[in-house]
């Protein structure tokens, strides 16, 4: 919680609050760490002074323009401070401030702190107060388009909140498709696609379309976990919820395997598929395929999780044994 962002203001002459006439009526309130703190943090003088005055303002309950400006400076030094953000909201309500100015301020802060939960939470509260989501999709798009932020959890959560709260679904599939085209492994974009389609409804026509979409993406990059997960997620939305509910998907996955593809995501899908068939139909042939593929995963294609695949095979044997032995099943 140090004064890391203070370097931006090295060329700006900063006047301590203790030397400002307009703050002469406020007695700073130092942080109380007790008589024997386990770890004493060496705050920089500017950081210490700003927060000493911040604590004093909160203690006296002052909600004024100067208090608002003080929160701005405190948050510049520590944008993750929940207490300051909460008090800032209290001040804004008390002053009946122009919340559009607050949105403009937050756009700048988010640009510098795109992975800070408190900033996004404050933005949500302000948008709720205004009941106006006009800029939220553009804001989150800008945040996600910045280098390294395409999978920013906070930006995605804020975007989903805005879409769900204000019914902004109309153009979202186009937006998500662009992101997936740019990065087919962007699991956040795949998750967003599922979020939107689930809201619109998994009708038989939509399910068929989404299965085709996922298979087309797999054809481009077969060793890509995201579309495989999406494929399974869509199949679970069918009436039966079974992986074999759509023959074209079964044919597609078996075709990849027969062509020599050994992507661990393909194998994992086939293991689940054959496991379902073995349990539903007491099918030994499907069970043998599961055992063979689990062995391949454990020894070649997913060695780091070998114990898991060994467990899958052992567990299936146990389930089939119980189903074929009614007395053991009763026990």
UniProtKB/TrEMBL annotation:
Keyword Glycoprotein: no
Signal peptide: none
Keyword Zinc included in the entry's annotation: no
Domain of life: Eukaryota
SUPFAM superfamilies linked to this entry: Protein prenylyltransferase
GO CC, one annotated term: protein farnesyltransferase complex
GO molecular function: CAAX-protein geranylgeranyltransferase activity; protein farnesyltransferase activity
InterPro entries according to UniProt: Prenyl_trans_a
Entry-linked Gene3D superfamilies: Protein prenylyltransferase
Parts forming coiled coils: none
EC number from the UniProt entry: 2.5.1.58, 2.5.1.59
Keywords attached to this entry: Magnesium, Prenyltransferase, Repeat, Transferase
Cofactor(s) recorded in Swiss-Prot or TrEMBL: Mg(2+)
The protein's enzyme class: transferase
Similarity annotation: Belongs to the protein prenyltransferase subunit alpha family.
Protein name: Protein farnesyltransferase/geranylgeranyltransferase type-1 subunit alpha
Gene (name only): Dvir\GJ17219
